[in-house]
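so i finally got all the pieces together for this one. its two components total, 450 residues if u count the protein bits. some of the lines might not be protein, just check the labels. i wanna see the whole assembly predicted at once instead of chain by chain like last time, that was a mess tbh
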Amino acid sequence: MTRRGIRRWYLVHKWTSLICTAFMLMLCVSGLPLIFEHELDHLLGYEAPLETVAPGTPTPSLDSIIAEVRASRPGEVMQYLYFEEDRPIVTAATAASVESPPEEVHLQPVDLRTGAFLPVRPLRIGIIDFFYTMHESMFVGLYGTFFLGAMGVLLLLAIVSGIVVYAPFMRRLDFGTIRRGRSKRLRWLDIHNLTGIAITAWLVVVGATGVFNTLDAPLAAQWRAGQLAEMTAPYRDAPPLRRLGSVDAAVATARRASPDMDVSLIMFPGTYFAPPHHYNVFMRGRTPVTSRLIKPTLVDAETAALTDTRDMPLHIRALFLSRPLHFGDYGGLPLKIVWALLDILAIVVLASGIYLWLGRRGAALDRRVEELVAGGTMPEPEPAR
Amino acid sequence: MSGPARDTRPRPATRIFAIPLLLALASGVGLVAALLVDGPLDLLWSLAVATPLLAVARAARRRSA
């Protein structure tokens, strides 16, 4: 590569990194406890313990559970039922209206085997919630989410340009070289290069899936206006719903339509993801991959007849599959520990980048480019005092 | 005080990127395989994802260049 090319890539690496580093540091630090969110929930006692149930105990119907929940929240309507994947628990969400925003929804976990109400998990649980909101939107809603997505794009550019400038720098050095006997700056430059190139694949995966995840809300809105609207087209001019039919019957219909899947979520008519005349029963698969995907099944809320069921579009399925690759929550505790250690290495890359920039702010650009061109073997100048 | 790396002849890109590519491949395989397969092999895939950590740890333990 020509000196001019190296200079150009160096500037791309410098500026993309400088702009996004502070935000990436925040994301790495706030993401660290989120890797262990499930374990922390358990540790802090937010995961309701399940009692032992005697064999033969009659299982309550979903309709009876719904009746009990509604009786406990007079004046409220059902918004949705969410079924946990690993435990026999359904969480019933009620609110003043089917259109009430999430912060006004009341959640009631119920034991599916007995119908017993379980302790309500608070929506706001201190430090974890703080880290979650910080990580997702920096407390400024969708604009914050999009901004972090843009920072993620810069991170990806910084990685690509970092790989490009790694090549000339390492032309005369072995992989993993850390020159301890020379200046502190040179040692940190070697550490920055080593850790950066070593975790590149992981960083690209986490960065790219993170950017993709920031598009969650617009993609959901686009799916709702597209495929979902298409599925309910025959009901466009139908008269208003007269009564809500049985949820158990709707579930039976959805199970017949997708016999190799389980119920994940039931949205009630008129809520954000269900049209006014239908239960939208979202089914999930049983394999490690298909359990991450959901399939909408529209069931007539009065008659329990199947209206339509379709696989979601490819880009929405890709979004669902990108989530575990961002959070690292799919390979048990060993993978979570590895994820956390890689996250710490990412913090080292970012922090060493800042250190290197602060240490060479006064140096001419040509000298820094020369350092790369010389293949990392250029003598270090005496530090200014 | 130690000097620069012993062999200072310029290396081709294939050699510069050989180990980083292997690390990326191992991580990539581990990341995808852990998603596709559940069970006892999870530990193996976690180790594959951890290869960059092992490479960094090895370099950190090595004597100064």
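Chain B is about 65% helix and 0% strand.
The helical segments of chain B are 13-16, 18-36, 42-49, 51-61.
anyway lmk what u think
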